[in-house]
């Protein structure tokens, strides 16, 4: 996280509770069982703010002594026949104390006669870094080790995003983050490489879209707090109220293709045989900055970069005759990039409007190919610095960047390809009976601006 956000943008570690292990036997152990997990809270930059979430509590009214430590001459007057104890002062000045007495919030202790002020009853508190009021996991979707509790993700998103923001979970797991983001009208991107992308994430998110998922934060639970009159279905105060989800929105689902190029046994770069003609044409268009949009009638128009500039990808050996035929069909103001495996030497520079390139060669050096793990090459972390103006960002080796070399294949087809899968969605829900989506959190400053 330091590498991505910069160490100086670290804000807090938030504690959440794990499901408690049921341990009966007391044995000697090397370490204690973990009862908590941590959320590491980072911001994008120094000028990002969040509205702290609230949590439900049951707090009864109580009275508290009116003095506080420290010497404050303007707050050391006589009140109900008493002065503050030595080295202490009253909490407020004379005027404020009078207002509190008038409103019944400051009185003399019936037993001792000393001033005391009222702490009203309440049903919500502002959250600090201890979030043990929400259990971290739930077990509704049969995910092997349990899923994150939707309420937990809701609290994080409510605090750090507003409607329409993007939420990324690059380790989607059971899909909780996407489901919650969707129900909260955020846009989202989820990435998952496991088979449970098909067995868990997809079915779950389809249920979110069609509104049959009524678990988690879907249902509105009216708050019992009378002080929240007029705001009973708000998902903000108390943090444990649902959104009234009834379905809507949608998402696109992509498979990440394998590396386009690989080495053969002679150490030559070749096109991975799992790429069929369409996939290859899509990939080449993407690599070369063309929009893939095959023309229905003209076979060599696979995509375009401008109105008149086209790309054509073929695995055939391109001969002069073949090139001439294409050129005959081209209009004078059209230009074409041909990506092929090989071509007759005489093709090169034959036409000013046609550029011809060999596929492996034209891509090499531009991306990493033929690896299972495209790990970022990240240099060692810098030590924390006391200078607040110092950027905590770590430089990344350029070779580690932009190394997603495969085309993203759209559509709902079942691809035989390996690699991570990716969903991009947005929640635009059907209008709930009661629209509880509080206006309050739109006022909130975004965490990631
Ligand atoms: C603990 S789960 C994620 C839980 C989820 N983010 C949540 O909040 O409930 C981690 C997931 O990350 C997936 N994963 C691990 N490495 C990955 C990678 N390189 N690309 C995509 N997914 C990955 C695992 O398959 C696993 O499902």
Topology:
Blueprint lengths: L1 H4 L4 E8 L18 E7 L11 E6 L2 E4 L1 E3 L18 E3 L3 H9 L3 E3 L6 E5 L2 E5 L3 E6 L1 E2 L8 E2 L1 H11 L5 E4 L6 H8 L3 E6 L3 H15 L37 E9 L4 E3 L5 E3 L5 H12 L2 E2 L10 E2 L4 E10 L1 H10 L5 E9 L10 E5 H5 L44 E2 L11 E9 L10 H4 L6
Parallel strand pairs: 1-10, 13-14, 20-21, 21-22
Antiparallel strand pairs: 1-2, 3-9, 4-8, 5-6, 7-8, 11-12, 14-24, 15-23, 15-24, 16-17, 18-19, 19-20
Helix pairs in contact: 3-4, 4-5
The site of S-adenosylmethionine has 14 residues, from β12, α4 and β14.
Task: Provide the descriptors you would attach to this structure in a database record.
3 domains, Trna Endonuclease, Chain: A, domain 1, 26% strand, alpha+beta, single chain, five-stranded mixed sheet
